[in-house]
Design brief:
Pfam families: b-prop_At3g26010-like
Domain F-box protein At3g26010-like beta-propeller: 112-233
Distance between the termini: 70 Å
Order of helices and strands: HHHHEEEEEEEEEEEEEEEEEEHEEEEE
Organism: Aquilegia coerulea (Rocky mountain columbine)
Helix content: 10-25%
Number of domains: 2
CATH architecture of the largest domain: 6 Propeller
Largest sheet: 4 strands, antiparallel
CATH superfamily of the largest domain: TolB, C-terminal domain
Number of helices: 5
Shape: globular
Oligomer: single chain
InterPro entries: At3g26010-like (IPR055290), Beta-prop_At3g26010-like (IPR056592), F-box-like_dom_sf (IPR036047)
Protein name: F-box protein At3g26010-like beta-propeller domain-containing protein
Length: 364
């Protein structure tokens, strides 16, 4: 071999080694970085690639990172007035759960709330609350509350994934009719850290929240009331009623971190900003800036003869879903895409927006 051939051979080996290292670096970035931004169903498909990928995805720390990184709405859990829960996916290839009826809980339940991958359910016979993740089928049962929450409680689970806090700490806030002050609403709060229920000192007089209307965003819970909106801060346990908003035939939704209400009028779908106070838009908020109203014309053929199409509650801000008879469609505010999801969706009862997450719950 000549000196020139030797140089070319060394150069060839150097290029091959460099390419291998680059492929290795890309693989590490994908496995340990980009994968955490994918929904749980998509992530779990990668476990079959090889043993190393399976070990990484099975690691509790990876699950913790995914629950913090992935916040996009994946679909809805539907709780029919009579029957088992079901799941409606915005993209069946990407989003899903192995047991949409939640039969792994061993008792029939009604879903009460959904936040960042966790579901709050209530046993139909024992009335106990259950917190679960339908992806990994992990669950825990909460102790019995000290107060009567009613037959159809408006309980909301509050869970905010944190990079610094490895444990999935959450709270359950349930408004209930006061027995000491007729016409007033009190709040009982469960803390997973304390593992106890406590009645808040906060009392709202002359207010009743609508069951199933609770939505959690930006560290605040919002319920609809007869003449407006009731906001509750679960950290400071402070409630405030706002009666200058008409929520008739409207649904509370989130649009880029801001509280809005959405409804239909004729064939026009409208999302309007609810600016209750400055805290609905944090001072350091760096997300999308939106106008006070989003309005789009929906194809009259989709609406058909339906007088009042139903808007489903949504989180995340760029996907809105509505139902006209048995026709279900989504609208992406960022891309302007209108997509028919189903033409035979028989939907009744309450719907809860869901995030496909790997968050871990202490199992019983």
């Amino acid at each position: 071999m000549s000196a020139l051939d030797a140089i070319q051979e060394r150069r060839r080996k150097f290029v091959e080694d460099l390419a291998k290292r680059q492929r290795k670096d890309v693989e590490i970035i994908v496995r340990e970085g980009a994968l955490t931004y994918l929904p749980a169903k998509a992530v779990l498909k990668f476990r079959s690639i090889c043993r190393d990928w399976n070990l990484i995805i099975s690691n509790p720390f990876f699950n913790h990172k995914q629950s913090h990184s992935h916040r996009n709405m994946s679909g809805f859990f539907n709780q029919s007035p009579s029957g088992k829960p079901s799941f409606i996916s915005l993209d069946e290839a990407a989003y899903g759960v192995p047991d949409p009826s939640l039969s792994f809980l061993k008792v029939p339940v009604d879903i009460r709330s959904s936040t960042n991958g966790l579901l709050l359910c209530q046993g139909q016979t024992n009335q106990l609350y259950y917190v679960c993740n339908p992806v990994n089928k992990e669950w825990t049962v909460l102790p019995k509350p000290s107060c009567q929450h009613g037959t159809d409680p408006a309980a909301v689970i509050v869970f905010e994934p944190s990079v610094l806090n490895f444990a999935a700490d959450y709270k359950v806030i349930c408004p209930f009719a006061s027995t000491d002050f007729p016409g007033a609403t009190e709040f009982e709060i469960y803390s997973s850290e304390k593992k106890t229920w406590e009645v808040s000192r906060e009392i709202c007089f002359n207010q009743r929240v609508q069951s199933g209307s609770g939505i959690y965003m930006n560290k605040t819970i919002y319920w609809t009331i007869a003449n407006g909106i009731l906001a509750f801060d679960p950290i400071n346990e402070h409630a405030s009623a706002h009666s200058n908003y008409s929520t008739l035939n409207a649904t509370l939704v989130e649009m880029y971190g801001r509280l809005c209400y959405a409804n239909f009028k004729s064939s026009k779908f409208t999302v309007s900003l609810v600016d209750l106070y400055q805290s609905t838009m944090p001072m350091n908020y760096k997300g999308h800036r939106t106008s006070s109203k989003l309005s789009i014309d929906v194809d009259a053929n989709f609406i058909g003869n339906i007088t009042h199409p139903r808007v489903l509650p949504s989180i995340g801000g760029d996907v809105f879903v509505f139902l006209a008879g048995e026709r279900l469609a989504s609208y992406h505010a960022f891309t302007g895409e209108f997509k028919v999801l189903s033409t035979n969706m028989r939907l009744s009862g309450k719907c809860f927006p869901y995030v496909n997450s790997l968050v871990s719950v202490s199992s019983n």
